[in-house]
Structures are given as C-alpha cells and as structure tokens.
C-alpha cells in the first residue's frame, strides 16, 4: 500500500515538470529570435542611398546583399522554430490524451472504492472485521489496512482534483503553443514580403551598376591594387613577428639545453638529444587557448554590424565577371564604432596604409589584424584582453558614412577564414 501511495504522489508531480519544459522551450526559441531580429532592425540604418556613383552603389550592393543574407537566416530560423513548435504540439497533445485517460481511470477506481466503503461504512461492520481476527497480530494488520485504505482513498480523491486541474492547464498550454505557431507562420509571411522588397532593391542597384561597367571595372582594379599593397605590408610585418617568435623559441630551447647539461653532468650524449622547441612555451599555451575558442570568439567591432565582404574569392551578386578576393572579411558598423580584440594577446605592430591605421595582435602562433582605423588607443608591446577596445574605425563621409573594419586572421603565415572562428 505504501508503494502505491508513493507512486500516486509521483504521478501528481510529473505533469507539472512536463509543462515547465514546454514553456521553457518556447521562451528559449523566442529569445533566440529576438536577438536575430534585433540585429536585423539595428542594421537597417547602414544602407545609405544618397549618392548614385558606382563606388557608392557598390557599397550599397554589399550592404543590401548582407541584409538579405541575414533575413534569409532569420526566415530559416522561423522555419526551424515552426518545426520545433509542431513537435511541442504533438508532445502536449499526447500528454493531454494521457491525462484525460488517467483522469477517467482514476474516477472509475474512486467510484468503485466509494461503493465498497459504503458497504463497510457502518461502525459495527468495521469493528466486526477487526474483532473477528484470529489473533492480535491479525487484528493489528486489519486496523492498519483500514487506515491505509482510507489514506489511499483520500489520495485518490485529491488525485482526481489535481488531474482535473492539470488537464485544464494542459488544454490552455495546447492553445498557447498553437497560438505561438500561428504567430510564427504570420511572422514568416511578413519576413518573406520584406525579403522580396529587399531583393527588388538589390536588383535595382545591380541594374544601375550594369550601366556603369567602365567605372565599375576601374573601381575593382583600384580595390585589388589597394588590397594587394595592404596584404604585402601585413605579410612583411607578420614575417618580422614570426622571426621574433622563432628567436624567442630558440633562446628558450638553448636555455633548456644548458640547464639539462648542468643537470646531467657527465652524460653529454643524453643532453645533446634534447629536441629544440618549435615555439616558446608561453606562445604554445596561448595558441592552445585560442584554438579552444574556435567558433566562439567575439566579433571585433562594437555595436550592430554586417559582414559586407566575405573571405576568399567570390563573384559580386548579380554582376557577371565581377570578382572579389578578400584575405579577411570586411565588417560594417555604425559611425563611431570601435575595433576590439578577439582574444588575449600582445600588440606586435601598429602600422599605417593609405592614410589609415592598422593593428596586429599576436595570440601565440595566431595573429589577428585590424585595419581601417582613424585612431588607435593601444601601443606596440601592450598586453590586451578579450573585448578590449583598440581604436575608432574610420567613417568614410564620401561613401555614405560607411564605417568598415577590415579584419584578418592568420596562423603564422597561413591565412584563415575569420567567419569560422567568430561567434556571429
């Protein structure tokens, strides 16, 4: 009987837990959507359409293409959330059916027990049942049975009340989840309409640029020349930093060999077999920490942003034969945005190119580059922390107030795709 009572209590508490899980799932989905939508809304102001020259239109095309990309991601998120809510509806409907079945069964059992207790309800019947026992032990067991049966019946009554209440709540929960689905479907349709309008705006810009092929090719050649000059400068500075790191490692290895020779006096052969270090221990430790954060490093710009130029070679949307080759990524923010360090490290170089400033930070064997700054707030040799502001990003007033940070990531000489490392 005690086991039955305990089981009944557990059954009473279980539906409450399931309901809490459903509500938590819906709230988490809403929170994720709010963050994505907030970013889209913030980035509306990044599109400037005041000028119609080819360079400005190229910038507009990059921004609107990035905005379209973000809206497509948001619609994809809505689709996934609708699927998740559909699953929740299936779960809640199943729980509701189970609750209704349990409520019906409990009522039937309670009805049967009430009929039985009515037959034995007279005091003389209870006393007769107790005193007709063969011995004291049996009498005690019969008394305990009657008490436990009464407790069992009381719990059954309470269980009916709780099941009725829980069934009512579960029905309300089902209505709420279905309303969430309706809301998501409506939002998805609204987002699709906005996407269609953005795609029309994008096509309008593309059509405008197609009429300016000569200007466009001139701008592309100019950009390629500037990018090549910048990358050569960065490559030279990184090569200097690699040489410094190599010297540090060699010095560390030399000291380790000398220490080993002293420790193993008379064992020259053994000491000579100690291998040289590939990198200084501090650099290796920092590199390891950096690698552990792949995919979750902060985006190197303050405020809302759009990635307007991706890593590697790619065709410009809608323009045949117009190719860009980026050794990093270009991130557009709002005027006044700051560049910030993606990880702990040391400022190994501050440089100038085409009248703009750049910063190189070493994170062990990994190196991050921040370019197109109008002012810097760190010095060479400074130790920086993750998220620390490094300087103000230049705002191009001649190009619709475009505020674009050029960001690169290297593993020594090897160029990496920053988007695979950042938490976007």
Question: Which key features would you list for this structure?
Answer:
alpha+beta, 11-stranded antiparallel sheet, 7 helices, 13 strands, 61% helix, disordered N terminus
List the topology elements.
Elements: H1 2-42, H2 54-119, H3 123-131, H4 136-210, H5 213-263, H6 268-272, H7 281-292, E1 306-309, E2 312-315, E3 323-326, E4 329-333, E5 338-340, E6 345-353, E7 356-363, E8 366-376, E9 383-384, E10 389-393, E11 395-396, E12 402-411, E13 414-416
Antiparallel strand pairs: 1-4, 2-3, 4-12, 5-10, 6-7, 6-9, 7-8, 8-10, 8-12, 11-12, 12-13
Helix pairs in contact: 1-2, 1-4, 2-4, 3-4
**Span between termini:** 58 Å
State the helicity in percent bands: 55-70%
Structural class: alpha+beta
Instruction: Tell me the overall shape.
Output: flat
* Mean model confidence by pLDDT: 81
- In DSSP terms, counting alpha (H) and pi (I) runs of 4 or more, how many helices? 7
Specify the biggest β-sheet: 11 strands, antiparallel
Proportion of β residues? 15-25%
**How large is the radius of gyration?**
35 Å
Number of strands: 13
Low-confidence stretches: 1-14, 269-278
Q: Helix and strand string, N-terminal first?
A: HHHHHHHEEEEEEEEEEEEE
